[in-house]
Amino acid sequence: MGRFTGDILDPTFTFGVRIVKMGMALPRNQAVMVLTRQVMAAGTSVGANLREANHAETRKSFVRHVEIALKECCETIYWLEIIVGAGVVERKRMESLIQEGREIEKILATVVRKSKQRAKA
Questions:
Q1: Residue 58 near residue 119 (C-beta atoms within 8 A)
Q2: Which of 17, 64, 85, 119 falls 20 to 30 Å from 75 in CA-CA distance?
Q3: What is the DSSP string of 103-121?
Q4: Domains in the chain: how many in total?
């Protein structure tokens, strides 16, 4: 269907790369490694699901992939906040990444809402 352009694909790619780099910089102990795997899986899944949505064959499939990307974005923010809350990284070092996730979350929520409204029309 090819609905997205670089306006959202590029930021989600950059977000995924930043998540990976952040994960590589975290301490290497057992507890943090569990958190790292979780945040990296969710954070890189956002852009991957949007790319799948871009090639969806139906509107329903498109919306479903964007919904998955939205859920993964929300989960990423959760894991970032857990990392901060557990004292692994100071909030000020993580704030821009959390904010970036929230901005992507808002965009994706809007896409889902508008796509569902169009489907009803």
A1: no
A2: 119
A3: HHHHHHHHHHHHHHHHHH-
A4: 1
* Contact yes or no for 104/15 (Cβ under 8 A): yes
pTM of the model: 0.93
Q: Pick from 105, 100, 37, 13: which is nearest to 66 by CA? A: 105
121 in any annotated domain: no
- Domain range for 89 is 6-115
pLDDT at 109 over 90: yes
58-90 pLDDT, tens digit per residue, is 999 999 999 999 999 999 999 999 999 999 999
Instruction: Give domain status of residue 1, yes or no.
Output: no
Query: Which helix or strand (DSSP H or E) is residue 1 part of?
Result: none
The CATH number of the domain where 85 resides is what?
A: 1.20.1440.60
Residue 88 falls inside a structural domain: yes
pLDDT at residue 120 in the model: 78
